[in-house]
Automatic annotation (TrEMBL):
One of its GO terms (biological process) is ergosterol biosynthetic process. This is Phosphomevalonate kinase. Belongs to the GHMP kinase family. Mevalonate kinase subfamily. One of its GO terms (cellular component) is peroxisome. Keywords: ATP-binding, Kinase, Lipid biosynthesis, Lipid metabolism, Nucleotide-binding, Steroid biosynthesis, Steroid metabolism, Sterol biosynthesis, Sterol metabolism, Transferase. The keyword ATP-binding applies. It comes from Dissoconium aciculare CBS 342.82. Its EC number is 2.7.4.2. SUPFAM superfamilies: Ribosomal protein S5 domain 2-like (SSF54211).
Length: 490
């Protein structure tokens, strides 16, 4: 364990908690990788929470250690030592062994985030980082719930725990695809910045302000850390929605991140500050970087009385492989791809426009109100979903990649036939992972859908099969937010 003797004058650090939402890319999968197009992304009411607190030490001694744990999972403890690297290389973070006999179980998202955020903090504030411990809590819908937990929580004599103890190692948990890594990186980044930096430099309030410089720095830093941990520069819609919540999203130019130095390499720290604060790294470097991300919060709304529903399809798809194949096809067939991309983009825009128009036109009343037949106002929305699905099926046929495969077509068709279901799509990259539905927000509609899904035997063309389950999540407009640090426990 690394230790350093320092001055005993310290500013007291106070326990701090932050949460960031998961996401669903309702429309714009693949297209959003290209700045010419946008994605319609909704934040979800399933959040990842990070609670950070000081580790008490004896007078005059500072341990250079940050410990992170995720108590919902077995053996999910990661301890890190840190030190300033030479030649402005930032903070070097090294995982410490919890037990000499156990192999190191690395968590690249946590390790990379620590090295990015500590490098930034030591560059703009004190070079001394006091030790801390971080606890992660994930809302239950991020992972499929084992049957025994479901049974326990449906038993009327027990109350459902806010955060399940999944009682398996994280590597064995089945993710439901809500963007756990982006919400994790965003909440840890925001927690560290709030904890170590003075309010004058970083303040998460006010919660929604697009113009907030703190939120913008958080976005830039979390995107950089997430891409580095993933080992690739994706569109970043998941981190953007973790920070800003639901929006019509246009990605940043990939070149902003693709040439960034590695942690530990000379000048990593000033380059990172330049990237986060959008100023030239030093007087001799070229112009300042400006993130060209576009986040239109007002262009995304859900009309009163409607809600999103997500269903998890057991089995799942390998998204990275699908993305590679689709992009390779697009490069090989530019004319065909252009036509397809143009039509799908128009269909996606039409859905966003219909949702917003309907939300703005309904300042009172609710589309869930029961006055006999389904409101005629929902017809254009149905048409918008149908148009998107037609394009996604064309994409499936032309690329040969199972974006909306026949098994998903059958499932979405069946859901759309339930009265009160307005429309459905395969979200994100599509495939066998999930479906997203827009429904009238009524008990009877949810019940009918639940019954259909409970009895549904999913059987895909590629041997993918299993059960479908309805998640307990819905859309939420708000992005990252400060939480009350007291009161978190399993
Ligand atoms: N509760 C958690 N505690 C600690 N680390 C976590 C937790 N949840 C996720 N992670 C980290 O995030 C990784 C999963 O990230 P990945 O990008 O593969 O999934 P995702 O973001 O949920 O998926 P998708 O992009 O399909 O929505 C895990 O391997 C782990 O490193
Ligand atoms: C295919 C892509 O556009 C969306 C992938 O979304 P998801 O992980 O399936 O939710 C990739 C990306 O935007 O980075």
């Amino acid at each position: 364990m690394a230790s350093t003797v320092v001055d005993d004058e310290k500013t007291p650090l106070v326990p701090t908690a932050v949460s960031a939402p998961g996401k669903v890319l309702l429309a714009g999968g693949y297209l959003v990788l290209d700045r010419a197009y946008t994605g319609l992304v909704f934040g979800l009411n399933a959040r990842i929470h990070a609670v950070i607190q000081p580790i008490p030490t004896g007078p005059g001694i500072v341990l250079n250690e940050i410990s992170v744990k995720s108590p919902q999972f077995r053996h999910a403890v990661w301890n890190y030592g840190y030190r300033l690297a030479e030649r402005e290389g930032g903070v070097k973070v090294t995982q410490l062994r919890v037990d000499a006999d156990l192999a190191l179980d690395r968590n690249p998202f946590i390790e990379t985030t620590l090295s990015y955020v500590l490098s930034y903090i030591t560059s703009v504030a004190s070079p001394i980082i006091e030790p801390s411990s971080i606890t992660i809590y994930a809302d239950n819908d991020y992972y499929s719930t084992p049957a025994d937990l479901t049974t326990a929580t449906t038993n009327p004599t027990t109350t459902s725990p806010r955060f399940y103890n999944f009682n398996v190692p994280l590597s064995e948990a089945h993710k439901t695809g809500l963007g756990s890594s982006a919400a994790l990186v965003t909440s840890i980044t925001a927690a560290l910045l709030s904890f170590y930096l003075p309010k004058s430099h970083f303040d998460l309030l006010p919660t929604s302000a697009l113009a907030s410089p703190s939120r913008r720095r958080l976005h830039n830093l979390a995107q950089a850390a997430h891409c580095a941990a993933q080992g690739k520069v994706g569109s970043g819609f998941d981190v953007a929605s973790a920070v800003y919540g639901s929006s019509l999203y246009r990605r940043f130019s990939p070149s902003i991140l693709s040439n960034h130095p590695e942690p530990g390499s000379p000048s990593f720290a000033p380059a990172l500050v330049g990237l986060v604060e959008e100023r030239a790294a030093d007087p001799s470097s070229p112009a300042a970087i400006t993130w060209d991300t576009e986040i239109l919060q007002d262009a995304v709304k859900v009309p009163r009385g409607l809600r999103l529903v997500l269903c998890d399809v057991a089995g799942g798809s390998q998204t990275p492989g699908m993305v590679k194949q689709v992009l390779a096809w697009r490069a090989a067939q530019p004319a065909e791809a252009d036509a397809l991309w143009t039509e799908l983009h128009a269909a996606n825009q039409a859905l966003a426009a219909e949702l917003t128009a309907l939300a703005d036109a309904q300042p009172t009343g609710s589309l869930a109100d029961d006055d006999g037949d389904e409101p005629a106002a929902l017809r254009p929305l149905r048409a918008a979903f149908a148009r998107i699905r037609a394009s996604l099926r064309a994409m499936t046929r032309q690329t040969g990649v199972p974006i909306e495969p026949a098994a998903q077509t059958r499932l979405i068709d069946a859901c759309e036939a339930v009265p009160g279901v307005v429309g459905g799509v395969v979200p994100g990259a599509g495939g066998y992972d999930a479906i997203a539905l827009l429904i009238r927000d009524r008990e009877d509609v949810v019940r009918a859908l639940r019954e259909l899904i409970a009895g549904w035997e999913f059987s895909g063309e590629e041997g993918v099969g299993g059960k479908v389950s309805m998640l307990g999540v819905r859309e939420e407009m708000e992005g990252v937010r400060a939480e009350e640090a007291r009161g978190y426990s399993l």
